[in-house]
Amino acid sequence: MVYVxxxxxxxxxxxxxxxxxxxPTPVQTPDLxxxxxxxxSLNKSIQTYDEEYQPLLPHTLSTSQILLGSLRxxxxxxxxxxxxTWRVLKLVKMPLEVLLLLTxxxxxxxxxxxxxxxxxxxxxxxxxPLVCVLTFNSGQYGLYLIEGEFPVWALVxxxxxxxxxxVFCSTTNEHPxxxxxxxxxxxxxxxxxxxxxxxxxxxxxLHMLGIVFSLSNTVLGLTLLAWGxxxxxxxxxxxxxRQGYPRMAISACFGGILFNMLFGxxxxxxxxxxxxxxxxxxxxxGLLCWxxxxxxxxxxxxxxxxxxxxxxxLTRAYGIFLIVFYFIFLLVALLTEFGKIHLGxx
Length: 346
Hints:
By secondary structure, the protein is mainly α. It has helices at 2-22, 35-51, 63-70, 76-81, 84-103, 118-135, 152-170, 182-212, 217-222, 224-242, 246-274, 287-309, 316-337, and strands spanning 145-146, 150-151.
């Protein structure tokens, strides 16, 4: 919390001083567009091009046509323009995309209608809570029988149908209701539970691979689990940086790690204390624990020293240095785990 407050306060002070010194920000000319603004203008031009295919006469779609159109994962014209490799990958991802479309509502404030889709959002009121109750704690509560006869998931479905009927009868296809923003909260909860379910399955698969190949949990955590846990951040940060927001990407790198270490470990230990253990003892398991802690501390100290020395201008050489540092750490940690490096050898 102190870290987040410090970032927000410092950003506010920086922007305030910048405005007081430079005055109001001048309007950018078209030839000085950033990459993000250029991509936005390009998307608008593509959207205008697609609108040429719309009928000239006003045409109102029925509710069933709106629902079927919203569940279509790809446009036919875009499908024809893409190469065969993109089509094959799209066919692999299509079942998951349709599943997410059916269960996760998305509210987009940049759109005029805030991405309001009356039949699909009403369907989300049924599928969203159902996903929550079937994925939370591996579906233990969803499969529970009330009085030994009526399952909880059926009760959730009935409640969702009741809410969906109220929303469907009190809204129109053209205008979103005033409470449409509440669907973003439902989408956040459903997305978090989907991610938690996928992560739990990945951990189970990795544990099974460790048993089959006689690998310890430490090796799995250092390699497959660490890479799988970070690949989403890697892709998103690279995408953000290429779109012209390097500061946002670097902030996400450090902010995500801080959130995982401080909030994740802090909340986990706090919950364990509430369970009856008032003191959580972290016992180091040999030399490997010290190597992990030392490598983490050394990388943070190097970043704390080298980045200010470079006047906060990160060069290609510094990025190569970090990659080499990671592979050296991984090699030393694996050699220690397999017994090639031990205290006796030191």
